[in-house]
Amino acid sequence: MSHTFFITDVFAESPYTGNQLGTLLDAADITSIDMQKIAHEFNFAETTFITGGSLERGFDVRIFTPNSELPFAGHPTLGTAYLIRNEILKTNVSELTLNLGVGNIPVTFSEDDVSWMKQKTPRFGEPVSREAIADELGIQASDIDRQFPVLPVSTGLEFLMVPLNSYKALKAARVTDGKLADGYFVFCNGGYNDRQDIQARMFASALGVAEDPATGSANGCLASYLVEFKYLGSNEVEVVVGQGYEIDRPSQLYLRASRLDAVYDIRVGGKVRVVAEGRWR
Predict the structure, then answer these.
(1) Which helix (H) or strand (E) holds 172?
(2) pLDDT at residue number 208
């Protein structure tokens, strides 16, 4: 039986930028084994499979990297929600919910073409030695901002957050072994263009992704980090992040976050562009 598939670019200001996503719309009859094979065939950072659902109870979605299934990931959430709205429902609903491994994730659609997802309450891990992470990244410990901690953060998928002092250090960063974390998110102040506030990169070789062009889940962790440690001087932020420029997939992510006592509101937004559709045999 054949299945309709789409390829979208997510966190993309224009086509052929952002993070690529393969999505099969009518995937209820596809086995987990075949889902993994299809994800490997696409060989994008993630591929999604819509297995059922409705506007009332939410849409059931599974997410696979080329190597494994994930409970949550950012750009697959936004790209899949966009396709559900425009290709399945074919109505301009303002909000819908995806039922993922991590739970229910609401996605809203704004008039400025940005889709937004609300992420789960963050969990913060224990700080990691700057010397150890510098060795992992192939940079100097002095390249890491000493005003803020290096530590893992999760809003459904965990990343080691590494604040750097400069773009020079960001550009030099590499992960060759990956002993300390499955995913490394490095960032610094400044944008790749005058609309952006932060530059970032994400490495996750353990998940089959050497470097990711745009990582919604990691940027949710970044948004949590920014308000938790008042990185920008406030526990409420609205910033634009550039990612993927070093691998020729420029991406732009919109973050809105706040923390009041133990209550977090973490939202990550981006634009979605459809670049292809077809039949999977």
Answers:
(1) helix 167-172
(2) 72
The pair phi, psi for residue 229, each rounded to 5°, is: -105, 10
The segments of the chain whose pLDDT lies below 70 read: none
pTM tops 0.90, yes or no: yes
Angle at CA of residue 49, ends 102 and 56, nearest 5°: 65
Give the CATH H-level superfamily of domain 123-266. Diaminopimelate Epimerase; Chain A, domain 1 (3.10.310.10)
Residue type, 193: N
Give, in words, the CATH class of 3-120+270-280.
alpha beta
pLDDT of 184-203, one tens digit each?
Answer: 999 999 999 999 999 999 99
pLDDT score of 202: 97
pLDDT of the residue at 206? 75
> Which pLDDT does position 177 carry in this prediction?
74
Other beta carbons less than 10 A from residue 253's beta carbon: 33
pLDDT in the model for residue 55: 96
CB proximity list for 236: less than 8 A, separation 6 or greater: 227, 257, 258, 259
191: CB partners within 8 A, 6+ apart = 197, 198, 199, 240, 242
| Among candidate residues 166, 177, 167, the one with its CA nearest the CA of residue 133 | 177
pLDDT number for residue 94: 96
Q: Got the DSSP string for 1-50?
A: --EEEEEEEES-SSTT-SEEEEEESS-TT--HHHHHHHHHHH-SSEEEEE
Contacts of 97 (CB under 8 A, 6+ apart): 58, 59, 104, 105, 106, 107
What residue ranges of the chain are covered by domains with CATH 3.10.310.10?
Answer: 3-120+270-280, 123-266
